[in-house]
Amino acid sequence: SIGRITPDKGQDKAIEIAKKSGSRLILAGNVQNKTKDRAFFKKLEKTIDLVVDTSKHFSDSDYYEKFMKPILNSDKQIIYIGEVNNAQKKLWYQHAQATLFPIQWGEPFGLVLIESMACGTPVLAFRKGSVPEIIIHGKTGFVVNSLEEALEVLPQVESISSRTCRKHVEDQFDSEKMAQAYLSVYRQIIS
Question: How many CB atoms lie within 10 A of CB 131?
């Protein structure tokens, strides 16, 4: 689960899904200096098995070997790794079985969804905001209405093709295609 650590992003729900399913969860994201977000993280910390010191900087060439591999080989279930850069995000997506996106508000466009699928990783997301417009339920991930439904479909993420995820992003969210679609909408509005 990647995103700013805040109640709106639902990391507490991601932790609950992981705990109830017995799955490992890697949480990545920054905690902004906002009272609400700091308090939320303080509450989350009680359920996190390992908080990794992200002040150690590894070059892109040794990031997997020195940082990711020990985490992936550990016996810890809920792991917080802090904020990651784009190259690091890509590696985490590529090594994930799925990306959890238990969003708690009407997110207008979830970039995390696109990034994950572009890396071939299916998404398990709550039906809020743009989620149903971005994920093809059963093909590029699963769109669910509740925690119980998330737990029910979680074993099925293995059936999602990484190629289908990647192709969906290429077909629907290519920057040129999206710009043309916006132009088309603007032309319709003007006329």
Answer: 22
Task: Tell me the two tokens of residue 68.
Answer: 């990711």
Residue with tokens 């439904």: 149
Q: How far apart are CA 12 and CA 53, in angstroms?
A: 21
Q: How far is CA 43 from the centre of its chain?
A: 20
pLDDT of residue 61: 80
Token pair in block for residue 37? 């977000």
Report whether pLDDT(82) > 80: yes
Region of 138 please: left (phi>0), alpha (psi -120 to 50) or beta. Answer: left
Half-sphere exposure of 172 (CA within 13 A, CB side): 16
Band of residue 145 on the pLDDT scale cut at 50, 70, 90: very high
d(CA 102, CA 108): 14
**Per-residue b/e over 59-91, b at no fewer than 16 CB within 10 Å?**
eeeebbeebbeebeeeeebbbbbeebeeebbbb
Q: In what order do the strands lie in the sheet with 78-80?
A: 25-27, 78-80, 50-51
